[in-house]
Amino acid sequence: MSTQTSKSIFLSAQGKLLVQPVTDSYTVEGSQCLVRVDYSAINLCDYNFFYMGLNSFITGFEMSGTVKRTGPDSRFQVGDAVFGISPVVIPMPSSHGTHQELVVARSELLYKIPAGVSSKDASVICMPAHTAADALFNVIGLGLPAADVAGIDPVGKGILIWGGASSVGMMAIQLAKAAGLQYIFTTASAKNHDILRELGATHCFDYRSRSVVEDIQQAQKSLGIILNLAFDTVGKGVMGPADASNLSTPELTKTALGDSEGLRLACTLPVHQDPAFGMCTSYRPSGNVNAMGAPQDPNSAIRIRNVMEHLLALKDGCLRLPVVTVVTGPEAGIEGIQRVAGEFVLHQTMRSASRLRKHRERLACSACRQRKLKCDRESPCGSCVRRRDVTSCSYEVSFDDLNRDRLRHTQAQARLEHLEHLVGLLAEQRSSTTIGVQYGTSAVQLPHDSDTGERTIASSSSRSDQAESGATHWSAMLDDIQALRSTLDPSEGNDIDEGDTSAPQADVGMGMDVMFGAGLSQTVSIEQVLSNYLPSRRSTDRLVSTYFRVRSYITPYIHSVQFQRQYEAFWSDPSAASPLWISILFSILFIAANISRTGKENEIPGHGFTVAAAQCLSLSQYFRPKAFCFEALLLYLHSRFVTCLEISPDMGALISVLAHIAMISGYHRESSVPSLSPFTAEMRRRAWSSFMQLDLLVSFHLGAPSRITLAVSDTRTPSNLLDSDFDEHSARLPSSRPDSELTGVTFCILKHKFMTVFDKILQYALVNPSHEVLNARIDSLDTELKDLYENLPELYQPRPIESCIIDHPQLIVARLCISSIYYKSLCVLHRPHVTKYRDKSIRKCYSASSALVTDLVQVYEECKPGGQLDTEEWLMKSITWHDFLLGVTTLCLVAHATIQIAEGFHINQLSVNLLLERVRTMIQTENSEDGARARSRVLSIVEATISRLRAQQSSESMQITADIQVSPNGTEGRSWKQGEAQQYETNWDYLDELLDASHHGIFTPAEV
């Protein structure tokens, strides 16, 4: 099919919005439609998704237009006028962003424009209406029988809608009225009350009033009713701490309902502080039971569609639409997006400052810094000479102190001007663009070839309360204030080039940037990739041999016998090989180049291999399922854990892509693809099991929900077989070997069993159950975990590392990893109850964390040159390193908790102190820039705990030697005096910040 070119608004990898031509075939499949866009709505997420790690895509998620072409399963006809959404996917195909002339959208997310509604007005309906419908009919559970949506009986019931003048609030009021609720309470500024009453509100309250909560409670008493349904459309105070004078809007909403029973609450943002609130969204993928991080009814999307189609079909209409303001041209569209996102002034004021930025003086050449190697500062340095790469050896020159001060103040002035602009907007009491996280309120038009004039951009001006949400809300200032602090105080973030960052960054130059569309020219061919990165046949053979020989890191979903045949065929005709298979080869070379080090540098630098693997994946459009796609991307992610201490959010984004590919390809459900050969089915089981484990571990450490739900999978656990036991020609699989027999997949099988229990523990920690079922559920999960651990095959039973001197490193690593999962699971399960002084949880956390830390301290020592595990240096990277930090922080938490209590279980303070001393030395020894901020924060906790334990021991010693007083009658009595040692007050909030399971990130890099 021929390609077409049109203008688009593109968000670059550097966060710049550009007017850029796009060329695409705009192919439609299944239920998809090709829509000629008339208007595309501006949304806050058009720009702010950049701060979530998404870039290099055509922006826009809402639109209206005319159907030009349909897929075979589409329910629309060519020529239909439609509106709808095109939700974000990772990565974003060029044909899906709505800020362009043509867009490919799924028909189930499109609606016909009703009679009497213009295309301009229709473009801003979908996201606020979907969000409101999701809150009322999915999260809260209202019903609309006329739309075949069952739910709560509305007779005599009411709802509180906080923020009724926002776009979502206006839609929610109208939907609540359509659902038949008798009482509709809402908050808004007084000037909007008449409008909201016209929409259906029965009682309006001024949110600015100091007595707004009491007024709402008094109104309920006067009517003799008790409201137990509420929808907060604002979410103020959710994204950061609420100030002392104002509670967050979820807190205000819940307080206004009083002590009502059976509360059903919804919010447009996740309210981690109060799990009673369910989060609503404008889009829930049909059948996705874990969308937005919460269990979901697979019929949620169907209910929203039924509600929307019913309301749109009414003859007299139902939904009152926001007022839409129109601006002209794509350049004005960019300005509109920047204004809605609250970033326009920052870009203008920072423009001159950005030209002045210079890096501080480096103590290593650029090549050594990129590879994280020591540099002798010669010219060229010894490392570059040994790598035969002297042309890359260069040093950056620093500013002098005067210019450094000028730069710092220029940056500070730019940020201050931006803050002043935001405060000024807060002071302006005038109607302006509605801004919200879950809904869009503007529309972009780009010129068609057939247009005689320029198309326009529409921006809705609904009657909203700007003080409640949006770019002028105080939460929008948090990032700027933090950046200002780091600019004015050079001691903060002095190891970072351009200001401190709270989250790990992508590995620029290591392939991750290529995966997201940066640094890869469209003209690069697979032949150029091979020419640039593939070493000689002899060197490649050695690395491949190393990968399959060092079996502790080998991935079970790469069948060694099959790979050898494919490898020989590749060298016979490299041009005939799939780029995805070539990506697998480069990932294997990267792993081998890193795990084979024994204290000296490799002759072949490994970083080029992972760049090549990423380029092969990108050239193959890895986000579209095809042969080798799932395995190639999975192995690429596995390879990234060989060298890095931090797990970057970009890895989480790629895991989301993997989850999508797995679901589309049926890896999670064997029953959906019954015609597979025995060999293919078994290899898919291995790949699915490996991905399930990786997803849980990475999601846990990133503080994000897992992408898959094990309950929907019927794929069996892999069989314990050697690769030589079966191949592509096997008519059936042989019987599985016993778990006590070590094969390349035994560890994966045992780990799979533990991860299923770990998943249950994470789900339990997220749900935050009530105290009545607390003990029973904890004990049940603890018992299940204990039974699994105690029934491990003898070969995998835990044992001291000094008793493993004749064991293969593969076996030692397997034992350590299984033990780490067991101890980590116990910490996650019991940690929330340590601060409640639950004796059993304190004991469990103490034994688990001390064992985990002890094991990993020993492993760290043995991974050094000459140790038992000197070939397994990769083991103390990424996930294992985060397990270590989790164990250390949990141990410190237990130490502080036991000091606070007079009775009950007490730790061995001397042994804990000695262990923490070793931990301190270990953290101080690790000098990599990767993960430095996390180490610094944990180190401060360790040092504080050591000081407190010493103070406690000193206090007890002083008490024991207290004065012995003699009574007048000659009898002796002991008077126990308080010691004079300094006493510390435990900072529970700080410890909980690092170990908060309720936020689904027990130890998240973004927080540490």
From TrEMBL:
Gene Ontology annotations for the cellular component aspect, listed alphabetically: nucleus
Protein name: Uncharacterized protein
Source domain of life: Eukaryota
GO biological process: DNA-templated transcription
Keywords: Metal-binding, Nucleus, Oxidoreductase
GO molecular function: DNA binding; DNA-binding transcription factor activity, RNA polymerase II-specific; oxidoreductase activity, acting on NAD(P)H; zinc ion binding
Pfam family, one: Zn_clus
Matches recorded under InterPro entries: ADH-like_C, ADH-like_N, ER, GroES-like_sf, NAD(P)-bd_dom_sf, Sec_Metabolite_Reg, Trans-enoyl_RdTase-like, XnlR_reg_dom
Keyword Secreted among record annotations: no
UniProt similarity note: Belongs to the zinc-containing alcohol dehydrogenase family.
CDD domains: enoyl_reductase_like, fungal_TF_MHR, GAL4
Originating organism: Fusarium fujikuroi (Bakanae and foot rot disease fungus)
Gene3D superfamilies assigned to the protein according to its UniProt record, in alphabetical order: Medium-chain alcohol dehydrogenases, catalytic domain, NAD(P)-binding Rossmann-like Domain, Zn(2)-C6 fungal-type DNA-binding domain
Protein location: Nucleus
Chief location bin: nucleus
SUPFAM superfamilies on file: GroES-like, NAD(P)-binding Rossmann-fold domains, Zn2/Cys6 DNA-binding domain
